[in-house]
Amino acid sequence: MTPPALAGDAPRVLIVDDETGILESLRILLKNEGFIPFTAHGGRAGVERIPELRPDIVLTDVRMPDVSGVQVLSTSRQVDPDVPVILMTAQATLQSAMQAVNEGAFYYIQKPFRNDELLAILRRAAEHRNLRAENTTLKQEIKRRERTTSGRPIGRSKSWLDVLRLAETVAPTDSTVLITGESGTGKEVIARYIHELSTRADNSFLSINCGALPESLLESELFGHVKGSFTGAVKDKTGLFTAANQGTFFLDEIGETTASIQVKLLRVLQQREVIPVGATEAVSVDTRVLAATNRDLEEEIKRGSFRPDLFYRLNVIAVHLPPLRQRQDDIPLLAESFLARSATLRHESVKMLRDDTLDALMAYAWPGNVRELENALERAVILSTGSVIDPDALPERVTARRAEPLVSERTPVSPTLEAIERAYIQWVLQNEGGNKSRAADMLGIDPSTLYRKLARYGEA
């Protein structure tokens, strides 16, 4: 007679008993019925196999000379709280059955038992396991959808929506992601968004700015240290890679790291282990790594200041964030969000922008990107006494009159070559966010030449 089909993949069953004959007979029975059986001779062997095997079901004798079945049950539930554990005993009592149930046993069966009775219990255990797994998957999907709709970073421009779609695609994977973009574009916002949509969302999201700490302190923060490894190391310290185990670790400004730190980061990505400062043994870590930089790492590789092998490990998925000047459609949405948040923090009503105030925000190039916009609006809220924000409340650099463009609704009369050159330089500077070094590169002139021209125009 063909046994009933098992739902999903064939369950892996760990059989634990101190009698070799019982182990072998149960192994053959389960194999013939479509299970994948593994055996452990004695409770101690069973306890040792559980973490490495991570079985779908555990079938264990209760009375064993070295380690009891109740201890096997306890270890199983520590490793995986959802694993069904079936206890077998030849000396069943009501008290022992109640203890087994209280400890979390799925079923308590008395020896000797009929094969069909045990198989029915095992199939129920497999079904229970599958239902729990499906329920967990469904809950994660519901949470992912809620996070996608409620916590989506603000923006409606095509370039920003492309970024969000890419982030949403890579989030459920464990791939390393390298986030690039100018300072203030929201690299940590995207990193947190990826984490919130990932299967690690219920675990830690930790971050560190690699450019904010000296090398020795950064090494200790990243990898930890042992007591006495250096002056001031008065006790063991857990590194952030270890603290973020099962979660996500965001390395901001990774382009600022030294060659020595880069070697150690490469080891983490390759071996998935860290060696604390002063330690001799490695510690395994299961941490997803997201990294960010405002530098061109490929250029840094050419200069010899960044390791190419580390770059390729980090650059599995590349997400580039556009500067705010390239996503002007998002400025009104961002401004509205910042003003609403400010009102909530201050327990005040939301202040509104006058049309000409919004025009000024839209016309400015925002070299500091979203961070600069947020700071400008915070200043404006503080300086505005009424419910409406006037342009005067904005920083002067935002409201300063911009030079009249060469091309406008009225055709200029006989523009000079100097006027054409001046307008072109202004256009390049605006597109480069006011960065004179990059503007000089775009113009094909030395920075010193650009500064002389700007000084002549009275714009240095």
Automatic annotation (TrEMBL):
Residues 12-126 form the Response regulatory domain. GO terms for biological process: phosphorelay signal transduction system; regulation of DNA-templated transcription. GO terms for molecular function: ATP binding; sequence-specific DNA binding. The keyword Phosphoprotein applies. The modification 4-aspartylphosphate is found at residue 61. The keyword ATP-binding applies. Transmembrane segments: none annotated. It comes from the Bacteria. Keywords: ATP-binding, Nucleotide-binding, Phosphoprotein, Transcription, Transcription regulation. This is Sigma-54-dependent Fis family transcriptional regulator. It comes from Gemmatimonas groenlandica. The lineage of its organism: Bacteria, Pseudomonadati, Gemmatimonadota, Gemmatimonadia, Gemmatimonadales.
